[in-house]
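User: I'm putting together notes for a lab meeting next week and I want to include a structural view of one of the chains we've been expressing. I don't have a solved structure, so I'd like a prediction I can at least talk through. The sequence is below, exactly as it appears in our construct file.
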Amino acid sequence: MARAEQKRSEQRRRALTVLSSVVVLAIVGVLIAVVALNSGGGTTNDASGDRVAADPTVVQDVTSIAPATFATVGAGDAQLGLTKLVNKPPLTKDGKPELLYIGGEFCPICAAERWSLTAALARFGTFSNLSQMRSAKDDGDLATLSFYKSTYRSKYLTFTPVENVDRDRKPLEDLSSDQKATYADATGTGQLSFPFLDYGGLLMQQTEGYDGVSVLGKLTQKQIAAQLSDPTSKVAKAIVGEANNVTAAICMMTHNQPSSVCVSPAITAITSQINSA
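Assistant: Thanks for the context. Below is the predicted structure for the 277-residue chain, given as structure tokens.
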């Protein structure tokens, strides 16, 4: 009897041990799931579209496109959407030519253009604190980046981004009186339309260089960024092609500095096209 009772006691202890292990594993699984759901740049962003810290892999892919890829793509499938500004004062800030960007996070045109703008500006300086999100669900729902609270450093130019409204079309960043005046002087109206880019008072842009809906579709940030290194991909022909257009415009601001970027055949060909327009 004593042996039988001891055996039953051991069996109960083993069962409790197994049960405890299962409970611990279940708790760990729940904690991992919670962390994954709340981590920046993860699948939650792809599902909800909310602004989160940009995935480091995405940032690396979009800001380190190889010179050979830029050269191979050239203008690619992008359309030149730049307009010359005539008799306008130079737009400068901190002693350097200024590129002013005014956009809205809901805007699908802005969503498309940010990819190319980021890739182009990375050739002249360095970004930090970029975010990623999607445009409004009822307005393309395109995976994109956001310049909200980002930082950009360059010895060649000053980049001033203003994300005026958020994904829900609610006020996000106000324009200064000078920025409002710059917009009105360039466009002839005070009624904001996104995006707006003023390249040092020389050129203006109010459209994306490619059709974001057809090119980006329902791709995620990682899927888009991963294709930028392949000059034969549809994504690269659009985004890198437009990045070359933006690069040429910036080179006109910086007086072709750095020369390693601005005097390349792909950029000089686009610059000639801008000057002849």
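A couple of points you could mention at the meeting. The CA atoms of residues 16 and 34 lie 27 Å apart. Residues 15-45 have pLDDT under 50 and may be disordered.

User: Perfect, that's what I needed.
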